Amino acid sequence: MRDLAMFNLAIDTSLRSCDAVSLKVKDWAPHGHAIDRATVRQQKIGHAHSLRGTKAKLIYRRTGNPRAVQLRLGHTKIESLAT
């Protein structure tokens, strides 16, 4: 159950795996109540992010909007997107 929840969280949020597994319950449910929105600062690491890329490709196919992909992945420059 936990692994499935973590998998869905990573896919739906496009978080890198190292960022998803470092989340604590207090990050999204302080004082025992779930919050509507959370901000996570993502870490930069030097290897491929295949699930993250898959979600980005799906967003681009559905919207045709590279800016939407840029925002979803947290890139500061649109040039950071791979073609």
Explain what the structure shows.
- With 83 residues, the protein is mainly α.
- The protein has one domain (2-80).
- Helices cover 52% and strands 0% of the residues.
- The chain has 5 helices and no strands.
- Helix 4 (50-63) runs antiparallel to helix 5 (66-73).
- The longest helix has 14 residues, at 50-63.
- The protein is elongated and about 40 Å long.
Task: Summarize, please.
This protein has 83 residues and is mainly alpha-helical.
* Tally of individual helices: 5
**Domains (count):** 1
Share in β-strands: under 5%
Largest sheet: none
Report the oligomer. Answer: single chain
What is the N-to-C order of secondary-structure elements (H for helix, E for strand)? HHHHH
Uncertain spans: none
| Secondary-structure class | mainly alpha
Helix content: 40-55%
Total strand segments: 0
The mean pLDDT is 76
Rg, Å, rounded: 14 Å
Gap between N and C termini, in Å? 35 Å
Looking at the structure, what is the overall shape? elongated
